[in-house]
Design goal:
α4 packs across α11. A 7-stranded mixed beta sheet has the order 1-10-9-8-11-3-2, sandwiched between helices. A 4-stranded parallel beta sheet has the order 6-5-4-7, sandwiched between helices. The chain is built from 19 helices and 11 strands. The protein has 2 domains: 312 residues, 3-Layer(aba) Sandwich (Rossmann fold), CATH 3.40.50; 127 residues, Rossmann fold (3-Layer(aba) Sandwich), CATH 3.40.50. α13 links the parallel β8 and β9. It is 47% helix and 13% strand. By secondary structure, the chain is of the alpha/beta class. Bound molecules: pyridoxal-5'-phosphate.
């Protein structure tokens, strides 16, 4: 060990929650660096205008999306998911945990986003659309006033086929990037980590996406993808660990959620707090959504990240302040979890730093509990999610049990009966039926 590593390990051993993390116990952590949202927004390197630009870009592409993905036609080419109340699950959670849950419980079903069935259909697709737009604009093939459905033509496909795209992924980002890139006509390569599911690789190959498999974990797949892409000037690398575009694509979810809450006549204000629980891998998805939500709802929204006990990379980076300079392996955790998309050992440094003043806290959950909640949600609400998408579900229990100080300090303890809890369900609708049956079975043990 060099000096820096020694001081790193000595200091962090003093943090009480590190011991629990190392023992793979579930933890609930309140972020001491949460700031007043107004101040945090003023200081942030990314702004509401950046999110607005992303939203407008997605609107420009809506006619194209609607044309090439018929499942989005009813929503006029908008890639969006339902927000639903889950009262039976709420009862089940309260009963099983012996913990009264104050407030309403809803599920944001990104599991059912069109095109790729996970939250990655937000950021991943957005980043490729932005790249395609820039290429077409810079070659005078398109103006932003055009009807973008013209992109669904042989002329554009032939144009995009001169360029390639690469990405490293545990599965879901690969699905999103692969599907949209191939649809536009790009040559696309997905570098898959060892934990990526076979059905995802098969699906991509069936769509003419090149899939390269690695024996190693997510960070290695990303590194390899980055190296290969750098060698080819016509290749664009989607950098899940550092991408602002991915982040902004996710952030657009916030204004959409605001609209959906209004449609359900759910009020969010000083007397009606909103709590949102987001499964976190490298951080871009939950970070982007949380960042967007803070711009929209300010101090009236409280965002928490959820991670597997075997891959708590973001909370480790945040609580130590080391961000991407520390990995879960550094403290002896194996980064082996059934939660696709969350099997990440080292967080994005970019996201950790941007989100730090906006995040209320984090918690971890065991794989066994993910499966149990998966089964419970099927039994109570007949909604099928992949294991990672259940990570946020235990959040309201943690908050109502261990979050008293947080609620008191943020002056919402006496307003909890007016609260709304939104659990962000990040994936699952594309999981093959036999696989889902196995997941359900595991939750029954
Ligand atoms: C990718 C993913 C996440 C988390 O997103 P990050 O950007 O990696 O933090 C959560 N759930 C599922 C199902 C995912 O695929």
């Amino acid at each position: 060990m060099n000096n820096r590593e020694i001081s790193k390990s000595l200091d962090i051993e003093k943090l009480p929650l590190i011991k629990k993390l190392k023992s793979l116990d579930e933890i609930f952590w309140v972020n001491p660096n949460l700031e007043n949202s107004k101040l945090a927004i003023e200081k942030s390197p990314l702004t509401a205008a950046d999110i607005k630009a992303a939203e407008e870009r997605l609107n420009r592409f809506a006619p194209y999306i609607s044309k090439v993905f018929p499942e989005t036609r009813a929503a006029n080419g908008m890639i969006e998911s339902p927000l639903v109340r889950i009262p039976s699950m709420r009862k089940k959670l309260a009963l099983d945990n012996g913990q009264p849950l104050l407030g309403d419980l809803l599920l944001k079903c990104d599991s059912h986003l069109p095109i790729s069935g996970s939250i990655k259909a937000r950021g991943g697709i957005y980043e490729i659309l932005k790249h395609a737009e820039q290429l077409a604009l810079s070659h005078q093939m398109l103006t932003i006033q055009d009807d973008y459905s013209i992109l669904a033509s042989e002329k554009f496909r032939a144009f995009f086929s001169q360029y390639s795209i690469a990405v490293g992924s545990t599965g879901n980002l690969g699905l999103s990037i692969g599907i949209i890139s191939a649809k536009l006509g790009f040559k696309v390569t997905v570098h898959m980590s060892a934990d990526a599911k076979q059905w995802k690789k098969d699906l991509l190959r069936s769509k003419n996406v090149q899939v390269i498999e690695y024996d190693s974990d997510y960070s290695e797949a990303v590194t390899q993808g980055r190296i290969q892409a750098e060698a080819d000037p016509s290749c664009y690398f989607v950098d899940d660990e550092n991408s602002k575009d991915l982040f902004l694509g996710y952030a657009v979810a916030a204004s959409r959620l605001k609209h959906q809450l209004e449609q359900l006549e759910i009020v969010v204000d000083e007397n009606h707090p909103l709590f949102v629980y987001l499964p976190c891998g490298v951080g871009g998805g939950p970070g982007g959504v949380a960042f967007g939500l803070k711009q929209v709802f300010k101090d009236n929204v409280h965002c928490f990240f959820a991670e597997p006990t075997h891959s708590p990379c973001m909370v480790l980076g945040l609580m130590t302040g080391f961000h991407d300079q520390i990995s879960v392996q550094d403290i002896g955790i194996d980064n082996i979890t059934a939660a696709d998309g969350l099997a990440v050992g080292r967080p994005s440094g970019f996201v950790g730093k941007v989100i730090e003043p906006f995040l209320s806290g984090s918690f971890t959950i065991s794989d066994e509990n993910l499966y149990r909640l998966l089964k419970d949600l099927v039994d109570t609400e007949d909604i099928h999610l992949e294991p990672s998408a259940l990570a946020g579900m235990i959040g309201p229990v943690f908050l109502c049990r261990d979050g008293m100080d947080y609620l008191r300090n943020n002056k919402v303890l006496d307003k909890m009966s007016n609260a709304t809890h939104v659990v962000w369900a990040t994936g699952g609708s594309m999981v093959p039926e036999d696989m889902m049956a196995q997941y359900y079975q595991k939750g029954s043990n």
